[in-house]
Design brief:
Elements: E1 3-10, H1 15-24, E2 29-34, E3 54-61, H2 66-77, E4 84-89, H3 94-100, E5 105-107, E6 111-114, E7 126-129, H4 142-152, E8 160-164, H5 170-177, E9 182-186, H6 190-202, E10 212-213, E11 223-229, H7 232-237, H8 239-244, E12 246-258, H9 262-269, E13 273-275, E14 279-281, E15 284-291
Parallel strand pairs: 6-7, 8-9, 8-11, 9-10, 11-12
Antiparallel strand pairs: 1-3, 1-4, 2-3, 5-6, 12-15, 13-15, 14-15
Length: 292
């Protein structure tokens, strides 16, 4: 079945009005998209910011007349429509189309991230089974890739690893598959902890080797290796706590940091760690070092 898609160029102030109007005239979905390259990296708590130039996309069932939809929108809002465009989109196997976008990815020399519907390209390699999910980390973002490549290059035998802000569990699970003795995960989001637990099970990880905690329940036990792929602000404010969670001689890897934030984050850890040169990829950085 084909679909009618209507696209409006709106400002953030118009978003609620036109979202309500589209739903009123029968849209089956309404989506907001960035009309320019204006990423929002650290929104304020309890806010849902939009871009200064936003596209609203509304989807209608096939057979819906675009002219009728647009006329009703003008009546409901009482004003001429912003710049707009409508088109008919042919139906397709959306799930298959989405799956085809994700292929196995290699990180470093040994580690592969493999979606569940693909065979492992190198069966004898370290293969982590992980399907793309929402916001939790799958290896496609530069910060996750930087951390995975760093882990692949470490000797993790007999190490205890702490994944602070574990999300999908991708870093902790990778560490276990790469030889770590134990990995501890913590996250403020209970859904993230569930995702970590599910992904560990998919990779046949013994739950006893991967305990998961909310931050307030995390045992204050220093780790041999700490990885934290979160955001620059929390990394700076949490520096005393994170530093205390690394054993003397232990290793640290931090990411989720924009290139222009790298020096500030590094400065927050410089008193306790001998830091390596900052690694950069696509405008994001990774900071690593060893605890004094």
């Amino acid at each position: 079945m084909p679909w009618l898609q209507v696209r409006l160029a709106i400002s953030p102030e118009q978003a609620e009005t036109y979202e309500d109007a589209f739903l009123e005239v029968g849209a089956v979905s309404v989506t907001f998209m960035d009309a320019e390259d204006q990423p929002i990296f650290e929104p304020e708590l309890n806010t849902t910011p939009l871009w200064s130039h936003t596209h609203l996309l509304a989807l209608f069932e096939g057979g819906t007349e675009a002219a009728s939809v647009l006329a009703h929108l003008e009546l409901l809002t009482g004003s001429p429509l912003p710049e707009h465009h409508s088109e008919v989109i042919e139906d397709q196997d959306w799930e298959r189309s989405w799956m085809d976008n994700f292929q196995p990815m290699r990180f470093g020399q040994r580690l592969w991230i493999v979606p569940s519907w693909h065979a492992a390209p190198e069966p004898g390699a370290v293969n982590l089974l992980l399907d793309p999910g929402l916001a939790f980390g799958t290896g496609t973002h530069p910060t996750t890739a930087l951390c995975l490549e760093w882990l692949d290059g470490q000797d993790l035998k007999d190490c205890n690893v702490l994944d602070f802000g574990c999300g999908s569990g991708i870093l902790a699970i990778a560490a276990l598959l790469l030889g770590a003795r134990e990995a501890v995960g913590t996250d403020i989001d209970v859904q993230a902890l569930e995702a970590s637990r599910d992904n560990a099970g998919r990779n046949n990880i013994d739950p006893a080797l991967f305990p998961l905690y909310l931050p307030q329940d995390l045992p204050p036990v220093p780790a041999d290796v700490l990885v934290a792929n979160i955001l620059a602000g929390p990394l700076v404010s949490l520096a005393p706590q994170l530093s205390s969670l690394v054993k003397p001689g232990g290793r640290l890897a931090l990411s989720g940091i924009l290139a222009e934030q790298g020096e500030e984050v590094a400065a927050a850890y410089a008193a306790d760690f001998d830091l390596d040169p900052i690694a950069n990829r696509d405008g994001w950085v990774r900071i690593t070092g060893r605890r004094r």
